Amino acid sequence: MLDVEINKKHDEARQGEAFAPAPSLSNSPARKFYIESYGCQMNFADSEVVASILHENGFGATQHFQEADMIFLNTCSIREKAELTVRKRLTEFRKVKKYNPGLLIGVLGCMAERLKSKFIEEEKLVDIVVGPDAYRSLPGLIEEAESGQKGVNVLLSRDETYGDISPIRLNSNGVTAFVSIMRGCNNMCSFCVVPFTRGRERSRDPQSILDECISLFDEGYREVTLLGQNVDSYSWQNPDESEMVSFAKLLEKVAQISPLLRVRFSTSHPKDITDEVLFTMAKYENICKYIHLPVQSGSTRILQMMNRTYTREWYLSKVNRIRELLPGCGISTDVITGFCTETDEDHKETLSLMEYCEYDLAYMFYYSERPGTLAARRFTDDVPEEIKKSRLQEVVALHRIHSLKSMQKEVGKTAKVLIEGNSKKSDEHWAGRSDNNKVVVFPKNENLQKGDYADVVIESCTAGTLIGRLKNN
Ligand code: SAH
Ligand code: SF4
Ligand code: F3S
User: Where exactly are the transmembrane stretches of this chain (predicted)?
Assistant: First the structure.
């Protein structure tokens, strides 16, 4: 039970239907904004860019929407459910606006991009609609909205990376941070709305990435997660043609900032992950041995229809290579059940692939057709909902066995844990994560604090947490 809850939390934070409100940042400036984020880590990182743009323009963040002059929802379109959650939230804000007619409501992110000005026609209470590449225009749009016009900007860009903007960390634990290294996606997975909501892929100037990571380190952060929809296709050509920076090179540069700075990254695409990346991971102790490698399906026929451009065998050869070059490396995945035309045989292939991989963590979904995607245009969404859901349950049940096994394997070992803060259940315990991304809880000792590393002997586990004690204690 516990593991489902924990996975769901991860799930929600990454892909999700979850949100996190902004913390209070300022001492009551003139106008206050409240921002709620839904969807993937990239969307959460974008909210930090938005907060920075608004802050620069004299607005201050608040954690309480009741005292806000403007409410922003940074939205996700990945599945229908994600959009429904936002719609529901908007009906709640409709009530708030009734009592505070001056309140501005803005929709940001992927749903804004997908629905564009239609949003304002459908949801009359929305004043501002801004797509992911247009956040710099937000202050101007607020002004327009304040003068009674509706403010819309959903232009996608080929070069916007917000590279020069220092994000304001929202809901931060002060130890771990996300850093965007690229935007958009050039893959056309047939089920996926992201290429339409986020536009073409573009990489961010490596120097601005390094500068951001260095300043995070100087501020006391000890872990950065480099973010992109497909990090392995990161590529930066210096304007003077002196250097081509690949993802492996970027990873190395970030790892060299300090051995005390942990480096993670997400997401790797099985078609693009290279040996060079794996060798770089092996070379640096501070690059965490954990790879998120979404498979989506175990059936080559379905993978082809999904336009993933790899086969089951190709995927398995990548998993074998990771295990060969990085023994003990954590591997996680995403799985979709009930994609168009999926048969019982295809589904069994997904289960058998999972049996082989024994994932440490998996984010599992049933297929949700998204308007405008290749699959929506080309194929019929023909697997009945009950079958999609029952296949999902089988996948979840199987994964539960694997994730428990993966936790149990750690018992008796010593894990190097980066302390992120108090354990949720007790102030007398620290909580942090191991190199291979498992949550570890252990009793405090006075010599250690948040942001320190600790060697922890793992004594037992639940489905979602390793429980241990400090080595030599
Ligand atoms: N860029 C990442 C994934 C981003 S979306 C990658 O290539 O792996 C995160 C996950 O949501 C996907 O991996 C997929 O498993 C799931 N997903 C995307 N579109 C979906 C849809 N239409 N229905 C159900 N799940 C979907
Ligand atoms: Fe979507 Fe595929 Fe791009 Fe991932 S790689 S964001 S699944 S199109
Ligand atoms: Fe959702 Fe957009 Fe991310 S659709 S998963 S918020 S890129």
Answer: none
